[in-house]
Amino acid sequence: MKWSICAQGFALAAAFLLSASGMRAADTFKPGDLWPDDQGKHIQAHGGGVIHVGDTYYWFGEDRAQENGRGMRCVSCYASKDLLHWTHRGQVLKTDHLEDFGRSWILERPKVFYNAKTKKYVMYMHIDGPFPGHRGGYELARVGVAISDTVDGNYQYLKSFRPLDHESRDIGQFIDDDGTAYLIFEDRPNGFHIAKLSDDYLTVEKDMCLIPEHLEGGALVHYHGLYYVVGSHLTGWGANPNVYATAKSLSGPWSEFKDIAPPEKKTYGSQSSMLIKVTGTQTTSVIYVGDIWRPRTQWDSRYLWMPLQIGDGKLSLPEPAEWSLDVQTGVATVK
Ligand code: DGJ
Fold first, then answer.
1. Separation CA 267–CA 308 (nearest Å)
2. 213 in ligand 1 pocket by Cβ < 6 Å?
3. Nearest alpha carbon to residue 123 among 221, 201, 47, 194
4. Can you tell me the distance from the alpha carbon of 174 to that of 172, in angstroms, rounded to the nearest whole number?
5. Of 244, 100, 225, 83, which is closest to residue 159 (Cα–Cα)?
6. I want to staple 127 with a disulfide (CB 3.0 to 4.6 A). Which of 28, 46, 144, 176 is the partner?
């Protein structure tokens, strides 16, 4: 009896502590749910990118937490060994102004690359805002670059520019199997670029191809000898049917674009951000990383991560369901 009272008391205390500290991390991926970090707070890494360094994955993205304060633009970094449980490593970039961009400047879709030659972490981000004297909007269409000696910052902002002199809004990142780093960027007048970074990653050096389609949210994976590129149509924060194409080489020719899911599902309310390839001892899984935007309550925007059905030139995003992943074997299991 004594023990059962004691156990009940313990359970109550644990429940209280949990509700005081926030949510508990789940042991499966639950697309669209709140996704708590190690402190029980919903992960703030929207429009993000994930890199794998050693045995650890790092997820960078827009930190839109309400407590950041008005006017602040923040990038958060999280670390994980299994892609499911994430430890918040901090806000690695946090500022309310950059250059002379004015008060309504925009920082979106940060991506970090590790340069093994210079041993620097290099962050690219979409920088935007109105032209001087204008009131608002996405007119600057630039990328910003920041660097750090350590993965979790702090990142020192270096500069902004238009890659290869083109407009650039949504950016995506791709690291090929040989380690070469590419930036994918949306160039409103022309289409969708896949471009190689310079040796030090501090600038965009060479266009591999311009796909003449108006797509954003660019994501790429190299899987069994074929490149698969995914993109979203230009509908602002509203979801649309995202599409994919394939090519044997990054410079193309690219196939026609096809829907990644039944078009009426509008990518299950999400927008592509990146594709993560997990190569394990048994198999290779490719995970679609998408944002479910909540434009009026951006801090509450959700994530849709699902293993893709991919191969032989076909790619499809299954209906969201609970799933698990073993990063050692590479096996993803949909429940
Ligand atoms: C769609 C983009 O993919 C987002 O990153 C963001 O720029 C919104 N447009 C803004 O409307």
1. 12
2. no
3. 201
4. 7
5. 100
6. 144
CA of 323 to the centre of ligand 1 (A): 28
Examine residue 68 and say whether the peptide bond preceding it is cis (omega within 30 degrees of 0): no
Element containing residue 191 per DSSP (H, E): strand 191-197
Query: Residue 253, preceding bond cis, omega within 30 degrees?
Result: yes
* Mean pLDDT across 155-180: 98
Tokens of 187: 């160039």
**Considering the entire predicted model, what is its pTM?**
0.93
Can you tell me the distance from the alpha carbon of 213 to that of 190, in angstroms, rounded to the nearest whole number?
8
DSSP string for residues in 36-59? B-TTS-B---EEEEEEEETTEEEE
All domains in the chain, ordered by first residue: 38-334 (2.115.10.20)
CB distance 212 to ligand 1 below 6 Å: no
Residue 63, ligand 1, Cβ within 6 A: no
Question: Residue 202 belongs to what H/E stretch?
Answer: none
Q: What is the pLDDT of residues 229-244, one digit of tens each?
A: 999 999 999 999 999 9
Closest atom of ligand 1 relative to the 109 alpha carbon: 5
Nearest residue CA, atom 11 of ligand 1? 236
Q: What is the pLDDT of residue 316?
A: 98
- 19, two tokens: 């509700």
Chain length of the chain: 335
- Rounded to whole angstroms, the Cα distance separating 96 from 90 reads 17
**Ligand 1: distance of its center to the CA of 209 in Å?**
23
Distant-in-sequence, close-in-space partners of 112: CB < 8 Å, separation ≥ 6: 49, 51, 58, 60, 77, 121, 122, 123, 124, 151
